[in-house]
Design brief:
heterodimer; B: alpha+beta; Glutathione S-transferase Yfyf (Class Pi), Chain A, domain 2; 11 helices; about 60% helix; protein transport (chain B)
């Protein structure tokens, strides 16, 4: 009997099992390869680490970063690429590099750097998942990390202006989406009829962009025009992540039940009240209108 | 049209050389332009980085226009009616772009890592070569500044905690993917070279022909005989009049 595999990751919303791209990649791969994962969603308690999420824990190992986690799962004989040829394996690596170089900067920008999106959607959502006062610190740190990554990989030394690169990264991302759409064509998955690592990565990067409701949505609009990519995401969601109450992930005696769009905590109601008050307060002070209610609607 | 290709005398690929064999730098940088059969003249300048509009070398100077970096150079040349990838269909173009990103993602980052984050190489080779055109103390200051910049970038993309062995493993994985894609073909797509061939040639040629404190990087590439044959073939075909071949 294999040792239990536990995955710590960010929770879900807007019909997705997780809103965080890297966590979603690992979850999708686990579903495709049949790995029995126990999912621990980051919650309002002080248990567990939030820094390098997603993190896979087994009896003897702690593995972080999606690439390493997927390698580890493959070594445990949970291999979704079993039927791929050598050339298809090489193509997988190449397309993943394409996603990371061309699409990821724009996705990071949409979620973490674009002010309207960050302050009305991303920050309240992530802040609501973690206890106070971490909720005041961690989202800001993640946002700065994202900005840093964009500027250092795309900006020009020594001044690193964001404005110069914004147009370029969105152009690159749209081109990348077009390339993916051309490559997918009318097939169900990228390589044949069974999903593989590449499908997990594409799903992980595209699904949050597709489903999360943002005020500034230029990239999302472009994605919605590529109907085969949207169909790809919807198919995976309906086949592998059934959208029903608590159906997605396991419940064990330590765990919270995961309901899409909401996280119920075992904590006292007082803490929930304080957390919700902070959410409302932060939204009001930023924009004078309360958007936070929208971020916690259950999926339609 | 005659293109003037400018590169820095001690640009990154040259830094990996011991000794003053500068002609290797133009070989790497001009592979694409040679494949397009364009007449070029290569010039090396210490301040090429500052002449470039984006701060990066190499760049080309044509008439009264200046274009830098491989991507924009390819676009520019295409706009003038020369293109290596016209014969590819949409799916193949997507594949070509993906493989070019793989090379940039893995090989280029590994080369930068080896140059600036591996203490042995930095101490013995990189600092000295990078700072050599400048007087003291500017040579030390600029070298340290560049090293700090590169380390920041490595940290941002998650390579900060990698060991040398992990980096070499990534290079191996990348070479394996390229080798599998190339297979027994002459070039990566059909029988004609494309931008991908130029890019791969440039990187592999530099890795194979430069001497470092250890040879592990070039050994990784030499494990793949079809990649070695590919480099030799391109060198012979496009650069045979530049003097003796360096790949043995």
């Amino acid at each position: 009997m294999a040792a239990p595999l536990e995955l710590s990751c960010w929770g879900g919303g807007w019909g997705l099992p997780s809103v965080h791209s890297e966590s979603l990649v690992v979850m999708a791969y686990a579903k495709f390869s049949g790995a029995p994962l126990k999912v621990n969603v980051i919650d309002n308690t002080w248990r567990g680490s939030r820094g390098d999420v997603p993190i896979l824990t087994t009896e003897d190992n702690i593995v972080s970063q999606p690439a390493k986690i997927l390698n580890f799962l493959r070594k445990q004989k949970y291999n979704a690429d079993y039927e791929l040829s050598a050339k298809q394996g090489a193509d997988t690596l190449a397309y993943i590099a394409l996603l990371e170089e061309k699409l990821l900067p724009a996705v990071l920008h949409t979620f973490w750097v674009e002010s309207d999106n960050y302050f009305t959607v991303t920050k309240p959502w992530f802040a609501s998942q973690i206890p106070f006062p971490l909720s005041l610190i961690l989202p800001g740190r993640m946002s700065r990390g994202a900005l840093n990554r964009i500027l250092l990989t795309r900006g020009q030394p020594p001044l690193y202006h964001l404005r110069e690169v914004e147009a370029q990264i969105y152009r690159d991302a749209k081109e990348c989406l077009n390339l993916l759409s051309n490559r997918l064509g009318t097939s169900q998955f990228f390589f044949g009829n069974t999903p593989s690592t590449l499908d997990a990565y594409v799903f992980g990067f595209l699904a949050p962009l597709y489903k999360v409701r943002f005020p500034k949505i230029q990239l999302q609009e472009h994605l919605k025009q590529l109907s085969n990519l949207c169909r790809f995401c919807d198919d995976i969601l309906s086949s592998y992540f059934r959208i029903s109450l608590g159906a997605f992930s396991c419940v064990n005696r330590y765990q919270q039940q995961i309901d899409f769009g909401e996280v119920h905590s075992h904590d006292s109601t007082t803490r929930k009240l304080i957390a919700s008050e902070w959410r409302h307060l932060s939204s009001w002070t930023r924009y004078g209108r309360c958007k936070s209610a929208e971020t916690h609607t259950t999926c339609k | 049209m005659q293109l003037l290709l400018l590169c820095r005398e001690t640009s990154w690929s040259d830094i990996l050389c011991l000794g003053a064999e500068r002609e290797r730098d133009p070989v790497r940088n001009s592979a694409f332009l040679q494949m397009c059969n364009l007449p070029i003249k290569v010039v090396c300048r210490a301040n090429a980085e500052y002449m470039s509009p984006s701060g990066k070398v190499p760049f080309i100077h044509v008439g009264n226009q200046v274009v830098s970096e491989l991507g924009p150079i390819v676009q520019f040349v295409k706009a003038k009616g020369h293109s290596l990838s016209d014969g590819l269909d949409e799916v193949q173009k997507a594949e070509m772009k993906a493989y070019m990103e793989l090379v940039n993602n893995m090989l280029l980052t590994a080369e930068l890592y080896l140059q600036w984050c591996d203490e042995a190489t930095v101490g013995e080779i990189t600092h000295a070569r990078y700072g050599s055109p400048y007087p003291w103390p500017l040579n030390h200051i600029l070298a340290y500044q560049k090293q700090w910049e590169v380390k920041r970038k490595m940290k941002a993309i998650g390579w900060g905690k990698k060991t040398l062995d992990q980096v070499l493993e990534d290079v191996d994985q990348c070479c394996q993917a390229l080798s599998q894609r190339l297979g027994t073909q002459l070039y990566f797509f059909n029988k004609q070279p494309t931008e991908l061939d130029a890019l791969v040639f440039g990187h592999l040629y530099t890795i194979l022909t430069t001497q470092l404190t250890n040879d592990e990087l070039s050994e990784k590439v030499k494990n793949y005989s079809n990649l070695l044959a590919f480099c030799r073939r391109i060198e012979q075909h496009y650069f045979e009049d530049r003097g003796k071949g360096r790949l043995s």
